[in-house]
Write a structure and sequence with these properties.
This protein has 178 residues and is of the alpha/beta class. Helices cover 45% and strands 21% of the residues.
């Protein structure tokens, strides 16, 4: 059995970038980094770092099903979302995704940051501006958010992901002591 498994799903490369940084932070050789889309037989591990891209405030069904199959594991979540760079929104995503975990798992927490979105999303917002009766202020805010997301994940986001992983390792070390 592996000590650590970093499992992720990434559509634009944002979550993959965080996954590789988290993987590099983990000590030892008994670890693996796997994209869930590339492999259906996921090796067993003591601790899972599970990464996802956010759609409609949660993870994909594939990630949710994986999480719900975990039992008696240490589990940490990480992900990227383009819509908002807001701690309250990130917390709501964490709550939406962590609900998939069974209570017998040791939940280590979550790290979320903003990530760039495909250009087709901006084009969708722009096309909405031409509709009669649209909420122009709301759409302008979405366009501004899209533009701000284009630089994410930043080096600070990546450093924060490494800090998150190190904090999870500290929690695990404290568990072993008690």
């Amino acid at each position: 059995m592996l000590e650590y498994m970093v499992l992720y799903q990434s559509e634009t490369g944002n979550t993959k970038k965080l996954a590789t940084e988290i993987f590099a932070t983990l000590p030892g050789m008994a670890k693996d980094l796997i994209c869930i889309d590339d492999q259906k037989n996921i090796p067993e591990a003591e601790t899972y770092f599970v990464g996802f891209c956010v759609h409609h405030g949660t993870c994909s069904l594939e990630i949710g099903n994986f999480l719900s199959d975990l039992s008696n594991k240490n589990t940490a979540l990480f992900g990227t979302c383009g819509i908002a760079n807001c701690p309250e929104y990130f917390k709501s995503i964490e709550n939406s995704v962590s609900i998939w975990l069974e209570d017998d798992n040791e939940y280590l927490g979550a790290f979320l940051c903003q990530g760039k979105m495909p250009l087709k999303i901006r084009q969708k917002f722009e096309s909405m501006m031409t509709r009669q009766g649209c909420d122009e202020a709301k759409i302008r805010k979405q366009l501004q958010n899209f533009d701000e997301a284009m630089i994410h994940p930043t080096e600070d986001d990546v450093a924060n992901a490494r800090t998150f992983a190190a904090g999870c390792l500290n929690k695990l070390a404290q568990q072993k002591k008690s």
